[in-house]
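Hi support team,

I've been running sequence recovery on a batch of backbones for a student project. Most finish fine, but this one hangs at about 90% for roughly twenty minutes before it completes. I'm not sure whether the input is malformed or the queue is just slow. I've pasted the structure tokens below so you can try to reproduce it. Let me know if you need the job ID as well.

Thanks,
M.K.
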């Protein structure tokens, strides 16, 4: 998406990092660039507002469920693999193998 106007930071770059911005998971200098872009670009600001509203709604509706400890550990393990640049297997390598049925 692009609003057609020239910006220091391109609209597509801003939208590619929108969730990092929403979750405060980016360096302050990058947050400042995106915030500046929102001040200049109403289509991106509108998209930001929409995503922010959806995130708040999801948190309000689903934020009270407890996550099973083993699921959390599996997810965090995959995140660590991705962050370290390792290949993430397609199947769940942390699952307990099924025992064969005896006849």
């Amino acid at each position: 998406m692009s609003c057609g106007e020239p910006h220091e930071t391109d609209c597509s770059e801003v939208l590619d990092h929108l969730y990092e911005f929403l979750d405060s998971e980016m360096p302050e200098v990058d947050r400042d660039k995106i915030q500046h872009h929102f001040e200049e670009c109403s289509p991106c600001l509108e998209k930001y507002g929409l995503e922010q509203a959806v995130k708040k709604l999801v948190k309000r509706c689903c934020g009270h469920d407890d996550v099973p400890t083993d699921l959390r550990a599996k997810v965090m393990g995959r995140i660590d693999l991705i962050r370290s640049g390792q290949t993430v297997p397609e199947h769940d390598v942390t699952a307990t193998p099924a025992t064969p049925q005896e006849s």
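--
Follow-up from support: It reproduced on our side and the slowdown came from queue contention, not your input. The chain has one domain: 11-83. No action needed from you.
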